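Posting this for the archive.
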Amino acid sequence: MCDTCGCGDHDLVPIEIHQSLLAQNDRIAGHNREHFTEHGVLALNIMGSPGSGKTALLEATARSPLGGRRILAVSGDLATDHDAQRLSAAGIESRAITTGTACHLDAKLVHEALHQMEWWRADLLFIENVGNLVCPAIYDLGQAANVVVLSVTEGEDKPLKYPVMFRKADLVVVSKIDLLPHLPHVSCSRLHDALARTMPAPRVLEVSAVTGQGIEEWIAWLEAARARLSAPSRAGHHQPHSHGRE
């Protein structure tokens, strides 16, 4: 149970306080977004269940040709820095965000982690959220888009059971499709139907980080997302910014 958002216990965090927390979070998220936009950094919020394949997708991204793009990541976990270590080993400069009891990242945690990195030099910033299909969808981090990783092993009804997560997704990456031959009762068509019934504008990619299937399409989606950024030249923007009391 999360001490930050009070999920599962409405008496712990009353509605008024929760709304105030969200308002403060949104203010910091807006601050993050302004800086990302100013420096032309594509920041993506990578969400999904524990074990859905978020880290494996980013490792496969690091192995792919991205035209010399510089990739950075911050990785959220309750108690370890294992995912950040995996990403660093794959060649992605990474920082761990250990949340303790919080079941999601918030804009302040991301903001503080960025102070440990030269994030303004990045082309892509992956914000790997805590494994959870509920609370991470509620908190804006300043990202340009939300990507939800959903493995075929999780079941076809997850979009229907956790609709908020999928309604807020700009892209769903269906992962571990190399396992489909071993999952005779799993139907990708039923999974796509559940997504279509949940997402306002379904955008889905099927990938395998093991075989590389679908990774090329994932990279093309990333490049298209970067192309949509309307940022000024980076000239003169290679120094850390000052936040004063923030």
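The chain has one domain: 19-227. The helical segments are 15-38, 54-63, 82-89, 107-114, 158-161, 163-167, 188-198, 215-227.
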